[in-house]
């Protein structure tokens, strides 16, 4: 089922949303200081191209630099990508078949706004990552 969902997603919205992330990554890689934004954008392009069966989890070792980077990301590139996800979700929800894809697109809006400090993991590994004990040795 995941493969069918990913193929339909790719045809309906995935390819052009991934293209937006690739363009944002190329723009971000122009300056040396914004290369981490470009790398994050390329990572998100891969996720947006083939999302079903994977999810995003917050890395516990992300620090203050990720927070500062996310604020800069929102100002420079993130809000445009979030608007693209909102519009794509709206257009996908026009048909009954597209409603699950529109909802999936809307679930990617927080990731489009705050990509630094996020990690893309397979669905089967995400529960183990989230449930890992903190601070016990």
From TrEMBL:
Keyword Transmembrane helix on entry: yes
InterPro entries: Inner_membrane_protein, UCP028777, YccF
Residue ranges constituting the Inner membrane component domain according to the UniProt record: 4-54, 68-118
Keyword Transmembrane helix: yes
Pfam families: YccF
TM segment ranges: 7-24, 30-50, 62-79, 85-106
UniProt keyword annotations, A-Z: Membrane, Transmembrane, Transmembrane helix
Protein name per its UniProtKB record: YccF domain-containing protein
Protein's organism: Oceanitalea stevensii
